[in-house]
C-alpha cells in the first residue's frame, strides 16, 4: 500500500515510483526486509522456548499463550506511529506464531485417530491458507484508503481472538496429560476424542507405558535426540522444514504482490494475482486432505515436487524471454497471464505436498520423550530458513533476476530425490509404533534396529 510505504519506507516508495528503475529491483530494501523478517527471528527464539513450555504446561495452554501474544502484536501494528512500534508488533506476532506452530501440529497429531491423522493434520496448513487469502482480500479492499494499512494490520486481532477463545474450550491431548501425571484427565480426554462408546483402556495403557520409558531415560531431551537411535528423527526435523522453505513458496506468498508489481503488473492487479494464488493453494490442500491417508505421504511429496520443479523452470524461461537479460523490458499481457498460470500450477503442487505434509510428517514421527523437542527443532529450522531467505530474496531477485526461480528449481529437484530415498511411508501407523517404520527402512534401519524405541 502506497500510504504505508510513504509513512514508514519513503525511500522504497520513491524508488518504486521511478520509471527507469529495473523492474526486478524496485523493492530491494534491507529496511523493508528487516520489517518482514523480524517476525521469523522472534518465531525462532520462541520455538526453542516452546519445547519446554509444551511439555510443562501442555499443548492447549501454549496455544492460548500464542494467541494472546499474537493479539497484542496485531493491536500494536494497527496503531503503529513509527518504525519502532511496527517492529515491536511484528516481533510479538513472531512469538505468537512460534508458540502456535510448536503446539498446534502436535495437538492435531496426538488427538487424531491413526487412519485419519493425515486429513486432520492438513487442516493446520489449510487454515493458514485461509488466513493468507483473507489478508490479501483485505489488502485489496483497503488499498485505496490512506488508513487502509492500519485496518489490514490491526484486523489480525480477530483471528487471534477466535483462536485464543476457542482454545479455552478444548481439552489438552491425552499424551500431554499423561506426560504431566494427569491420568484421569487423560482418560476423559481420550474418551472425548475417541467417542463415549470407545474402550480407551488399551490406548491409555500404551501412553502410560511409553511415558514411563521416557521418564526412566532421565536425560535432557535436547541431548537425547542426538543419540544414534534417533538419527533419522533428527535428520527429518531439520531437512523437512529446511526443504519446505527452499521450495520458494513462502517467498512467493509473502512477496507475490511485490513480484507481480516488479514484473509490470499494476498495484491492484498484483493483489488480485496474490489472491488467485492463495485460492489455488487452498483448493489443492483440500485435495491433499482427501488423498494423504489413501495414497500416502511419499506419493504426494514426489508428485508435488515434480510439478513444482517443472513450473519453476518454466517461470524462469518465461521471465527470461519476456523481460530480457537486463530486466528492463516491460512484460507483455500474454506473458503475464502465462506467468500467473504457471505460478498457480506451482502453488497447487505445493498445496498438496510440501505445504501440509511438512507439518504433518514431523509431528507424527517422534516418540513421546522427544516429541516436543523434535517439533521445536522443526519449527526453529523453519523460521531460521525463512528469515535467511526473506532477508536475501529481494536482493537476489534484483541481482539474479529470473535466475532466482531456477535457484529454487534446483533445490526442489534435490528434495524430491531425498524423499524418494530417505523418507519412509508413515500413513496409518499409530504414533507409538512409528519406530517400526524406521527399523524396516533400507538406510535408517542401521541406526534404530534393535533399539526398540
Automatic annotation (TrEMBL):
PROSITE patterns found in the cross-reference section: MFS (PS50850), SUGAR_TRANSPORT_2 (PS00217)
Major subcellular site: membrane
Membrane topology (UniProt): Multi-pass membrane protein
Residue span(s) of domain Major facilitator superfamily (MFS) profile: 1-427
Alphabetic keyword roster: Membrane, Sugar transport, Symport, Transmembrane, Transmembrane helix, Transport
Cellular localisation: Membrane
Keyword Kinase: no
Membrane spanning stretches: 31-51, 63-96, 116-139, 151-170, 234-258, 270-287, 299-325, 337-357, 377-398, 405-424
UniProt-listed SUPFAM superfamilies: MFS general substrate transporter
Keyword match Calcium: no
Matches recorded under Gene3D superfamilies: MFS general substrate transporter like domains
Family affiliation: Belongs to the major facilitator superfamily. Sugar transporter (TC 2.A.1.1) family.
Stored PANTHER family: SOLUTE CARRIER FAMILY 2, FACILITATED GLUCOSE TRANSPORTER, SUGAR TRANSPORT PROTEIN 5
Name of this chain's protein: Major facilitator superfamily (MFS) profile domain-containing protein
Amino acid at each position: 500500500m502506497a500510504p504505508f510505504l510513504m509513512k514508514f519506507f519513503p525511500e522504497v516508495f520513491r524508488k518504486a515510483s521511478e520509471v527507469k528503475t529495473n523492474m526486478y529491483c524496485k523493492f530491494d530494501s534491507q529496511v523493508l526486509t528487516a520489517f518482514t523478517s523480524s517476525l521469523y527471528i522472534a518465531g525462532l527464539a520462541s520455538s526453542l522456548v516452546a519445547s519446554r513450555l509444551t511439555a510443562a504446561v501442555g499443548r492447549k495452554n501454549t496455544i492460548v499463550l500464542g494467541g494472546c501474544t499474537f493479539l497484542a502484536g496485531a493491536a500494536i501494528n494497527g496503531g503503529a506511529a513509527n518504525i519502532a512500534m511496527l517492529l515491536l508488533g511484528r516481533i510479538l506476532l513472531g512469538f505468537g506464531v512460534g508458540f502456535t506452530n510448536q503446539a498446534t501440529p502436535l495437538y492435531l497429531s496426538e488427538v487424531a485417530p491413526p487412519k485419519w491423522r493425515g486429513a486432520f493434520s492438513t487442516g493446520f496448513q489449510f487454515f493458514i491458507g485461509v488466513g493468507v487469502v483473507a489478508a490479501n482480500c483485505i489488502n485489496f479492499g483497503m488499498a485505496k484508503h490512506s488508513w487502509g494499512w492500519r485496518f489490514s494490520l490491526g484486523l489480525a486481532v480477530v483471528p487471534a481472538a477466535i483462536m485464543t477463545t476457542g482454545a479455552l474450550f478444548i481439552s489438552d491431548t491425552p499424551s500431554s496429560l499423561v506426560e504431566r501425571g494427569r491420568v484421569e484427565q487423560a482418560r476423559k480426554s481420550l474418551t472425548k476424542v475417541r467417542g463415549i462408546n470407545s474402550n480407551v483402556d488399551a490406548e491409555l495403557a500404551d501412553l502410560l507405558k511409553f511415558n514411563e520409558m521416557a521418564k526412566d531415560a532421565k536425560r535432557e531431551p535436547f541431548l537425547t535426540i542426538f543419540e544414534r537411535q534417533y538419527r533419522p528423527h533428527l535428520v527429518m526435523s531439520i531437512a523437512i522444514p529446511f526443504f519446505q522453505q527452499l521450495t520458494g513458496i513462502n517467498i512467493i506468498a509473502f512477496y507475490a504482490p511485490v513480484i507481480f508489481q516488479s514484473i509490470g503488473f499494476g498495484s491492484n492487479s498484483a493483489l488480485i494475482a496474490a489472491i488467485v494464488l492463495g485460492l489455488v493453494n487452498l483448493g489443492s490442500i483440500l485435495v491433499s486432505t482427501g488423498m494423504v491417508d489413501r495414497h500416502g505421504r511419499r506419493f504426494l511429496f514426489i508428485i508435488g515436487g515434480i510439478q513444482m520443479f517443472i513450473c519453476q523452470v518454466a517461470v524462469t524461461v518465461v521471465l527470461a524471454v519476456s523481460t530480457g537479460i537486463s530486466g528492463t523490458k516491460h512484460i507483455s499481457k500474454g506473458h503475464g497471464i502465462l506467468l500467473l498460470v504457471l505460478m498457480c500450477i506451482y502453488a497447487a503442487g505445493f498445496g498438496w505436498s510440501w505445504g501440509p505434509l511438512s507439518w504433518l510428517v514431523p509431528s507424527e514421527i517422534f516418540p513421546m520423550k522427544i516429541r516436543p523437542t523434535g517439533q521445536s527443532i522443526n519449527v526453529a529450522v523453519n523460521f531460521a530458513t525463512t528469515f535467511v531467505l526473506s532477508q536475501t530474496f529481494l536482493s537476489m531477485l534484483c541481482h539474479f533476476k529470473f535466475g532466482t526461480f531456477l535457484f529454487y528449481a534446483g533445490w526442489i529437484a534435490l528434495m524430491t530425490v531425498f524423499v524418494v530415498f530417505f523418507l519412509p511411508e508413515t500413513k496409518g501407523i499409530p504414533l507409538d509404533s512409528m519406530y517400526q517404520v524406521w527399523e524396516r527402512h533400507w538406510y535408517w534401519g542401521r541406526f534404530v534396529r534393535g533399539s526398540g524405541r
